[in-house]
Design goal:
This protein is α+β, with helices and mostly antiparallel strands and about 270 residues long. Helix content is about 25%, strand content about 30%. It has seven helices and twelve strands. A hairpin with an 8-residue loop joins strand 5 and strand 6.
Length: about 270
């Protein structure tokens, strides 16, 4: 690479991002936990967004995983279930310069979004982890939650790197709530839209993250769907934030144990 390409050409360094709904304390959660940790260690993402993270009075699973993996973390719980918190988290290989959280439009499920500005080696990276209402018929609620999300991203985002919005949206790519985020209909915040990492750089397959190949999903008697996303704002200078690869991960059992009822999504971005 010439000196001119190093200054003006596209960035060749990468940021690896993972998002995953880790299924709270459901199923055989104590036996699932090592499989979650092993999968995260193997993928070795720079930034990890988690949903359905449990907490109690002294700790939360994100804090434990961060300690084991050597990451920094932020966590927020939106609701309590059976005496345990139920929330979202962000883990980062690098320090977190600032963080915040916000509740989304409420309909009894305690949905929220968590924000972290990652103090990465090549500049700050704004990342969000969220989880929207789950019922099929709740598109109208998810649309209002997306509007809240867009406002939160607009307030928290960075001007030097596009926002990365990760999570379990419980919505198909063609749904109105996802169209609101991907600029295919009127955006909740003018000028704010996201590229779908799988749509941009997936392998052309289904990208299912709710997949009946997983026995925990199969037990729910629901169709295969792509409902977990890494969404990235428009690239900045030299392609910063451009998605160059996206894969479904966390989709194999570890020592015979499936880590979650969802598969994860991992993407690599120019950074």
């Amino acid at each position: 690479m010439t000196a001119q390409q190093e200054i003006f050409g596209p960035l060749e360094t990468r940021l690896r991002v993972l998002t995953w709904n880790i299924w709270w304390r459901y199923g055989p959660w104590e036996r699932r936990r090592p499989a979650i940790a092993a999968t995260l260690a193997e993928i070795d993402a720079d930034v990890i967004a988690l949903q359905e993270v449990w907490s109690d009075e002294t700790t939360n699973l994100a804090a434990e995983l961060a300690s084991e993996l050597g990451y920094h973390h932020v966590f927020a719980s939106g609701i309590e279930k059976e005496g345990f918190g139920f929330g979202n988290a962000l883990l980062s290989r690098w320090p977190i310069a600032r963080s915040d959280s916000t509740m989304l439009h409420e309909n009894g499920e305690g949905r929220l979004a968590v924000f972290a500005e990652v103090d990465g080696p090549r500049g700050p990276v704004p990342v969000f982890s969220t989880h929207l209402n789950w019922k099929y018929e709740h598109s109208h609620i998810r649309q209002r939650q997306v509007a809240d999300l867009a406002g939160f991203v607009d307030r928290m985002g960075s001007k030097t790197f596009p926002p990365i919005l990760c999570g379990d949206f419980n919505a198909d790519p063609a749904s109105e709530e996802m169209r609101l985020l991907t600029g295919l209909t009127t955006c909740p915040v003018e000028g704010l839209f996201f590229h779908d990492a799988w749509g941009w750089a997936g392998d052309g397959g289904s990208g299912y993250t709710w997949d009946n190949a997983n026995p925990y999903a199969r037990d729910k008697f629901e169709p295969n769907r792509r409902i977990d996303y890494i969404l990235v704002g428009d690239p900045k200078a030299r392609g910063a934030g451009q998605v160059v690869d996206c894969r479904v991960t966390g989709n194999d059992p570890i020592d015979g144990m499936w880590p979650s009822d969802h598969h994860a999504v991992t993407a690599e971005l120019r950074y």
